[in-house]
Each structure stands twice: as structure tokens, then as C-alpha cells.
Amino acid sequence: MIEVENLTKRYGNVTAVDAITFSAKHGQVTGFLGPNGAGKTTTMRVLTGYMPPTSGKAQIAGYDVFDQSMEVRKRVGYLPENVPLYRDMTARGYLMYIGEIRGVKNRGARADEVLERVGLIDRAYSRIRTLSKGMRQRVGLAQALIHDPAVLILDEPTIGLDPIQVLELRDLVRELGKEHTLLFSTHILSEAEQVCDNVVIINRGKIVANGSPSELRTTLAQGGRVLVRVDADTDAALTLVRELPGVDHAVVEMDGIAVTPKSADFDPRPSIARAVIEKGWNLIELRPLAVNLEEIFLELTRRQETAVDEVAAEEEEMEVAP
Ligand code: ATP
């Protein structure tokens, strides 16, 4: 179990992680999803006890990551973005060495067990420098597993792998998720959708959404923006939907028109459908816009940016107000 409450991490005056709260359950894969620089690595470093938070709290298996960092390190396996592997060691030798540092008993047997688990037992005696990138990533995963931790934290484990290696690693992550609390970061939306039971979306250090991929889809589909495609002149179609009651604004997006209703409770689809048919146009498509994580992500970050812009505009107005 991972529990994070109001966690903030600043580097000087850069707020990398801004009062985030979320939890990750045992027996589930939780995806930590966000673009470059969102704050994923920073959060993971704090969670693994490698860096203290500026404020807030985080617990791993009931232990505080800062006050009880030794207990935390015993219970967490971490695969950093770049694993420091010793290239001249064999895979098995390296795991024995890491096992020794972590106080693992029966190191040989345990090294074989984890090599088996990650599908590398036949390369146990190969030097790391002779292994492919995907195999090295699996050695990295094996070192995260060597001390049999309850919690696994994997930072972008599929980055730089070829498509087949990516699929293999995702399968392994799903398997490991059944027996661990597994948090893994990615900036690939489809990856999160395929692998995770739960997704925490982070952007600019703040959590913008949290839920199962299907929950996120449903929440955002309700009363959210809709996409309409009609067999008609785009300008004429834009004018038509913009004038409908309950429509706030409409813009050309993707291959159709994205319509934002004035209220989140209002579904503009029936009136759009009616208006298009009354015009005698063919309605090609009419659907909620946020149907996959890609669109959800764009929608959430768009909302966050609008909110930030609105606050900035208000502050500007206040400054010029007499
Ligand atoms: P990526 O996917 O690119 O690794 P990320 O989501 O993991 O991104 P972080 O690496 O946590 O993001 O970075 C979050 C923010 O904190 C960024 O603005 C980054 O520039 C900044 N940052 C990260 N590490 C440091 C550091 N050691 N000193 C100063 N700023 C840092």
C-alpha cells in the first residue's frame, strides 16, 4: 500500500510536486501518468526514501518514507529511469551483489528465482554488457525484486525498448501487479490504459485526475465536450452549433467540431442532432470527446491551463483595479 498526502517537493524555487494526494492498493497496478517534467520521477524518489519531501506525508506499507526510511527501503523495490548496472558482472553476480547489500539470505537461490521470474534464467551467467537493452531492463527489474519487497516502484520501465520488448515488459508488470503494490510511471497514455487498474494523472506537479481508466472515461464523458462531424461546410456547421442554447463555445478540432456546453450537467447532443437533421445535413458522428486516455489527458490539461490562465487574468485585473 502506498499513501501520499499533500506531498510537496521543491527544488529551490521550482515546485516539482505540488500538494499531491493519492494512494495505490496492494494487488493492483497504479499508473502514474504525465508528460515530461510533470513530477513523476521526483515523487518516486521521495516515495523510495531517496529524497525528503519539502512538506506533506507519504507512507509505504505503513512506514513513513522520511522518518522510517530504513523500514521503507526494506519493503520497496525501485527501478529508476537509468539503472546503474555493473557491465562487467554477470546478471547473476550482479543480483548476488545487490542481494548482499540488501541483506538477502540464500542469495544464490534468490537470484535464480528472480532471474526465472523476469525470464532471464538462461542468461544468468552472461555479462551484463552483452545483454540487449530489454534484457538489461529486466535485470533492473530483478534487482528491484531481489529482497522480495511488497511495493514495486518502476520509473518509465518501457522507455527505449523495442515493440516486442515493450509488450513483454507490460505483461510482466501486469503479472507482478497481482502480488505487489505496483506503481509505474509512463508518459504513454495507451500503455497506462492497457496495464493499469488505476491511473493517477499528474501535470505540472499537480494531480489532475485519479481513477480506473473506465471511471475516468465515464466521469469526463458526462456533460463534457462532445465531438460532432457533419457532412456540410465547416463554417456553416460551426455557426449552427455555436448558436444552440446551452452551448458555450465550439471549435474545429481533430476531424470535427468540439462543442463545450455551458454547464457540465448539460448534454448538448440531442439539440445538435436535431439542428443538423433540420438543416438536411448528414450527421456522420456525435460522441463524447473524452473517450480514450489520450483525449482525457488533453482535456484535463486544457482545463488546468484554462484555470491557471483565469487565475492569472483575475490577478492582473486586481492589480490594475483602483
Ligand atoms: P520526465 O518524464 O521528463 O522524467 P518527470 O515527470 O519525471 O519528467 P521530474 O523529473 O520529477 O518530472 O521533474 C519535475 C520538475 O522538477 C521539472 O520541472 C524539472 O525540471 C524539475 N527538477 C527535477 N529534478 C530537479 C533538480 N534536481 N533540481 C532542480 N529542478 C529539478
What would your notes on this structure say?
The protein is α/β, with parallel strands linked by helices. The protein has two domains: 2-211, P-loop containing nucleotide triphosphate hydrolases (Rossmann fold, 3-Layer(aba) Sandwich), CATH 3.40.50.300; 225-288, 2-Layer Sandwich (Alpha-Beta Plaits), CATH 3.30.70.100. Helix content is 40%, strand content 27%. The protein has eleven helices and 14 strands. It has helices at 40-47, 69-75, 91-101, 107-117, 133-145, 163-179, 189-195, 213-221, 234-242, 269-278, 293-320, and strands at 2-11, 14-24, 28-33, 55-60, 63-64, 76-79, 151-155, 181-186, 198-203, 206-211, 226-231, 247-253, 256-261, 282-288. α3 (91-101) packs across α4 and α4 (107-117) packs across α5 (133-145). The longest helix is centred in the last third of the chain and has 28 residues, at 293-320. The N and C termini lie far apart (53 Å). The mean pLDDT is 89. Adenosine-5'-triphosphate binds next to β2 and α1. Adenosine-5'-triphosphate is lined by residues 11, 14, 16, 34, 36-42, 187.
| Rg (C-alpha, Å) | 24 Å
Number of domains: 2
Q: Hetero groups bound?
A: adenosine-5'-triphosphate
Which sheet architecture does the biggest sheet show? Answer: 6 strands, mixed
Q: What is the succession of H and E elements?
A: EEEHEEHEHHHEHEHEEHEHEEHEH
The CATH level-2 architecture of the largest domain is identified as 3-Layer(aba) Sandwich
The fourth-level CATH homologous superfamily of the largest domain is P-loop containing nucleotide triphosphate hydrolases
The overall pLDDT average reads 89
Number of helices: 11
Q: How many strand units?
A: 14
Poorly predicted spans: none
Global structural class: alpha/beta
Assigned CATH class of the largest domain? Alpha Beta
